[in-house]
Each structure stands twice: as C-alpha cells, then as structure tokens.
Here is the input.
Amino acid sequence: MLKIAQIRSYLSEPDRVGRQPKKDPEAQAAFYANRRRIRGARGQALQRLRVE
Here is the structure.
C-alpha cells in the first residue's frame, strides 16, 4: 500500500544476525529496500532527529 501511495517508510531495525525474509519475494524486496534507505544519508538524519 505504501508503494502505491508513493510513500517511503524508514523503519529502524535492530542489529540481528540472520534476520531475512526467505519465502515471499515481495516481502524480501521491501525488507532490503528499507534496509538500504535507513543506512543512507536521509535515514541517518531521521535517526538523529528521533534521538533528540
């Protein structure tokens, strides 16, 4: 639904080893897209705002 509405989510993710969706390719694509966004410059800036 977020993709249809053209909204990008930046959900924080705890450091976990081996946490990956394996069965659903659509869920896997969303998982990695979120991971890529939160590690970028905008994602890091949003994290700093949350800390404040």
The first helix runs from residue 25 to 38. The chain has a mean pLDDT of 79. The two ends are 30 Å apart (CA to CA).
